[in-house]
Amino acid sequence: MGIELINNTLNNLDIFIIVWDREENIINFNKYSESISGYLQEEVIGKKWVGTLFEKDRGAYFNIKKQSYERKLQCKDGQEVYVWWNNIAFQDETAKSEKVISIGMDITKQKQTEQELMNSYEELEAVYEELAATEEEIKQNYFDLQNKEEQLRISDERYRLALDGARDAIWDWDIKRNKAFTSSRWREMLGYTEEDLRVDHLTWKELIHSDDKERAFKAQKDHLDGKTPFYTSEYRLRMKNGEYKWVMVRGKALRDEEGNPIRIAGSQTDITERKNFEEKINFMAYYDSLTGLNNRAMLEMRLNKSLHESKQNNLRGAVLFLDLDNFKSVNDTHGHSAGDEILKGVAAILKTFENDNIVISRFGGDEFVIMIHNIQSNEQVTNLAKDIVKSVNKCWLVQGREFYSTVSVGIVFYDSKNCDTQSILSNADCAMYSVKKSGKDNYNVFTMEMNSKLKGRIEIENYLRHALEYNELSLHYQPQIDQKTKEIIGVEALIRWNHPTKGLIPPNDFIPIAEETGLIVSIGDWVLREACRQNKLWQDMGYHKVCISVNLSANQLKQPGLVEKIRDVLIETELEPKWLCLEITESIAISDIEFAVKMLTDLKEIGISIALDDFGTGFSSLSYLRRLPINTIKIDKSFVDEINENTYAAAITEAIIVMSHKMNMNVIAEGVETKMQHEFLLNENCDMAQGYLFSRPLPAGSVESVMRNRIVSI
């Protein structure tokens, strides 16, 4: 979800959302807070809570550990609003500091209701005062009053008038005679009529939710036993329609001379709205709003508990770190709504694996973490990982388009000896990245060797961010040969990185990192511009004109304005479009066939030729190949390596050549290193080839001597 969408969502919620730092300085103030308080965001940002939204003499103090509490908010016009606050502390990774988000609900109307109830209590108290001047007098005359029915009837009528005027329910239980009285509001609150049920102590017990009974009974017993000065409890009561309503019950017992309770009376308040709000706040704090799974905070809480139990009881557990493969391309191309549909679908699959010992969570973005408590064997965990990889690998139909999903899974085992939450999660993440590097759609178990590789990867990433700035990148060019004439008809631009202290860093070590970090876009732009500039320079120097091939990454293909950017580069370098060929891999094309067809068609209309690289290593589906506007098919080196020894590789190569020609496409073979390979390809009418047999990739100056001869001898 983007920052703008999050801000819009927060500003449209009818709740206070205020962020402040450890010094109680306000750093965020949503629209609802502005509308209620009268303050604009710019009036309060940077100011402290106390003295701005709360008067200093009120002793306003916010305790991060105190999640739920009630506190008045001082409006700009001097009015006060009652607010039920929830504090949630979180770690700001950007600022490296702890922040607190205070979420509040306006309960002014509820407080007004409570005040009305208090007024009713005062009226009831006046009625009771007519019955007896003091509690001692009530005790002395209680048994006498039982015989004065007429006086009791008159008092009862006045008592009922007060009850009917109260919004909350009033109840009274005669303990000695085991008789109960409730106001009409008590039944109305739950949807019953007087004919539906007879309210007594037994009925009350039956209506309480089973999960709340023990707590409710204990609170009442503690008060009747004299352990608490008042009876207070919150629980759920079953309504007539079968649903449950949250109520807050308060009361006080009347005792005889020996201190034994003889009567207890009190009120019952509907707090369902408040409870729903608290539940919503709790859900926001510990659960993912999109998938309903546990969020990162809940996962870490559950993992800490599991680690503690593992240490106490010598148990073992495991953490699986999951990351959807190529998911970013879905969001970048079709928006977050399409990505959200896939995330919800994957979450539904993962939920099927959940049980008492397995906790499923969405860690963030397209990352999920699974904690398994009290495992019996490593095989139990790896089998689960296999099942998850298999289940997630599927085709999703979203917004009328097909998307393929796979997942990479990293596994870490833990026991009583390694009880560090962050290290476990970091190592599981590291194991997941090792899967990404080795081809994705699989799982791997963490080893210390992976950790050292991860550190090296981070080091490479840091160096790579400055490679362009420090002019450390360069291009080498590998000639592409006409098979029959041995004439150079093209060159492929290949990037090289010469670090000042680490020396030449192989492309396989830094290109995947550039892809993952997004640096490939700026690097790719540089490669495109430099390759076009160099080709035009060769033409101006009088060399025979050749087509220059430039590899296009998935991130580049899906960046906005790519067609305009390439057109601008061609205009800037004055290179005619027909002398530029863009190469994309098979996996990039199949990841979103509809988008690929449209984008490549737009590029081809400029006059650029398109080549499909690494053909045969991916899906190799004729259904998509016939739709793509491709000029050239490049046979992958893995087939060329074995065409003289492996009949399967030879048959595949022959089929690719025949098929391509039937579809009016040229064919170029990569990685040709022997004369036997060259002769086989020549006999099968392969149009072009490139490889060490003809020339290695060379710097611009060195390749010029090869281009000068035009014909390559082998």
From TrEMBL:
InterPro entries: Biofilm_reg_signaling, EAL_dom, EAL_sf, GGDEF_dom, Nucleotide_cyclase, PAC, PAS, PAS-assoc_C. Residues 107-148 form a coiled coil. Residues 2-57, 155-227 form the PAS domain. It holds the Pfam family GGDEF. Residues 315-448 form the GGDEF domain. It comes from the Bacteria. Residues 457-711 form the EAL domain. SUPFAM superfamilies: EAL domain-like (SSF141868), Nucleotide cyclase (SSF55073), PYP-like sensor domain (PAS domain) (SSF55785). Keywords: Coiled coil. Residues 67-119, 231-283 form the PAC domain. SMART domains: EAL (SM00052), GGDEF (SM00267), PAC (SM00086), PAS (SM00091). The keyword Coiled coil applies. The keyword Isomerase does not apply. PANTHER family: BIOFILM ARCHITECTURE MAINTENANCE PROTEIN MBAA (PTHR44757:SF2), DIGUANYLATE CYCLASE DGCP (PTHR44757). This is EAL domain-containing protein. It comes from Clostridium rhizosphaerae.
